[in-house]
Design brief:
- The complex is a heterodimer of chains A (112) and B (116).
- With 112 residues, chain A is an all-beta fold.
- In chain A, the strands form two sheets. In chain A, strands 2, 4, 5, 9, 10 and 11 form a six-stranded mixed sheet that branches.
- With 116 residues, chain B is mainly β.
- In chain B, strands 2, 4, 5, 6, 9, 10 and 11 form a seven-stranded mixed sheet that branches. Chain B has a four-stranded antiparallel sheet with strand order 1-3-8-7, with no helix packed on it.
- Chain B is globular and about 35 Å long.
- Chain B starts with a strand and ends with a strand.
- The chains are: A mainly beta (112), B mainly beta (116).
- The interface between A and B is medium-sized, with 24 and 27 residues.
């Protein structure tokens, strides 16, 4: 059984577009939600995290969690070519030590 | 040296070979992990070590054998692998395995393994 699903990708958008990346999940115990960014030939790096439902903003990036719908989103405003990467959602039930559950990732290309 | 370093970056091996992947972290973290990343699949957690002790083994075949001699070094010994084991193997570290505010995995760049 898949714990984390994602919307189909990959995505290709023009520079300046608003990008929406999404993941759905089935485990209601998940409480910690993260987005990792992975550039080509690099390891993933943490982009944003949140513990609760609602929005969290960091510059051009907004993470949104809807626990009632078991749905998380990452919005990128004014997308730049440097945002071209694979975006991985990850989530975890807290207090279980070390279980991160990752999605398959969405490849994003921002065209100049 | 900073962050998490993995060697080799690329490895090609036959099914009868024995090889090892190495990971070193310079972050002073207590927990280290091996993940497998295959195309169109989620990152798969393979092994977790906390203070050099293995705390997780997610039903990984015995042809993968981890070793953690200290909190800074982690190895993945490979023997009699199958072509379906070809993937990117990522090492990660974290401060500890109990997530606190802003808990984060720090990944290396990965070792790309091809099994012929």
């Amino acid at each position: 059984q898949k714990e984390v699903e994602k919307d189909p990708g990959p995505l290709s958008v023009p520079e300046g577009a608003i990008v929406s990346l999404n993941c759905t999940y089935s485990n209601s115990a998940f409480q910690y939600f993260m987005w990792y960014r992975q550039y080509s030939r690099k390891g993933p790096e943490l982009l944003m995290y949140t513990y609760s439902s609602g929005n969290k903003e960091d510059g051009r990036f907004t993470a949104q969690v809807d626990k009632s719908s078991k749905y998380i989103s990452l919005f990128i405003r004014d997308s730049q070519p440097s945002d071209s990467a694979t975006y991985l959602c990850a989530m975890s039930p807290l207090n279980t030590g070390n279980q991160f559950y990752f999605g398959t990732g969405t490849s994003l290309t921002v065209i100049p | 040296e900073t962050g998490v370093t993995q060697t080799p970056r690329h490895l090609v091996m036959g099914m009868t070979n024995k090889k090892s992947l190495k990971c070193e972290q310079h972050l002073g973290h207590n927990a280290m992990y091996w993940y497998k990343q295959s195309a169109k699949k989620p990152l798969e957690l393979m092994f977790v070590y906390n203070f050099k002790e293995q705390t997780e083994n997610n039903s990984v075949p015995s042809r993968f054998s981890p070793e953690c001699p200290n909190s800074s070094h982690l190895f993945l010994h490979l023997h009699t692998l199958q072509p379906e084991d070809s993937a990117l193997y990522l090492c990660a570290s974290s401060q500890d395995t109990a997530y606190a505010e802003g808990g984060e995995l720090f990944f290396g760049e990965g070792s790309r393994l091809t099994v012929l």
